[in-house]
Amino acid sequence: RKEVEQDPGPFNVPEGATVAFNCTYSNSASQSFFWYRQDCRKEPKLLMSVYSSGNEDGRFTAQLNRASQYISLLIRDSKLSDSATYLCVVMDSNYQLIWGAGTKLIIKP
Amino acid sequence: ETGVTQTPRHLVMGMTNKKSLKCEQHLGHNAMYWYKQSAKKPLELMFVYSLEERVENNSVPSRFSPECPNSSHLFLHLHTLQPEDSALYLCASSQNRVATGNTIYFGEGSWLTVV
């Protein structure tokens, strides 16, 4: 079983729609959680941290479910510029960053 | 302007060639990293340096040889690579060895193609 699993997609979504991705992790002792965004042929960039109470940043909402060991990312009112690959990152109990392979999102006009 | 710069951005090399990737960070950080990202695969940590000392080597083949002459510069020397080594190589830095997901900074990457 992969340590961090994501649906690779692609998710093809019309502009303006709401889209959600999940990411599951295997190590229940994992400490911190993050979503990164990676544009085509570019480096990953931090999108947002994921807090236990859930957090929101504009159109983006991240949530953590420790009991079921998954985190989610919700994007509302999607824009063409949201097209990218979204990477889930988990910091384990040894302070190692474990990366998911990413979910590709394509927003269509 | 990114705080972590990598050169070259693109590299095509034959299996018998020797080349090097260069990374420089302008953030005053003490730890630097090399990651490999293959298509549709997670980032794989290759090497970690803290204060110029290698602290982690994740079973990387010897055809990849890192060098960290000072805390601002990191090299990845490449020789006799295989086609499956074609990937995006990302350099990153963080203030100290324990990099959380929101304290690690990536360069733009070097696209390597081995022919």
What does the model show?
The complex is a heterodimer of chains A (about 110) and B (about 120). Chain A is mainly beta and about 110 residues long. Helices cover about 0% and strands about 55% of the residues of chain A. Chain A has strands at about 5, 10-15, 20-25, 30-40, 45-50, 55, 60-65, 70-75, 85-90, 95-100, 105-109. In chain A, a hairpin with a 5-residue loop joins strand 4 and strand 5 (about 45-50). Chain A is globular, with a radius of gyration of 13 Å. Chain A starts with a strand and ends with a strand. In chain B, about 35% of the residues are buried. Chain B is an all-beta fold and about 120 residues long. In chain B, the strands form two sheets. In chain B, strands 2, 4, 5, 6, 9, 10 and 11 form a seven-stranded mixed beta sheet that branches. The chains are: A mainly beta (about 110), B mainly beta (about 120).
Number of helices of chain B: 0
Query: Shape of chain A from CA axes?
Result: globular
Spans of chain B of 5+ residues with little confidence (pLDDT < 50)?
A: none
Distance between the termini of chain B: 32 Å
* Class from helix and strand fractions of chain B: mainly beta
Could you list the spans of chain A in which at least 5 consecutive residues all have pLDDT below 50?
none
Q: Please report the two chains with the greatest interface, counting residues with C-beta closer than 8 angstroms to the partner's C-beta.
A: A-B, 25 and 18 residues
- Number of separate helices of chain A: 0
Secondary structure tally: strands of chain A:
11
Please state the average pLDDT score of chain B: 92
The topology string of helices and strands of chain B comes to EEEEEEEEEEE
The overall strand count of chain B is 11
Oligomer class: heterodimer
Indicate the radius of gyration of chain A in whole angstroms: 13 Å
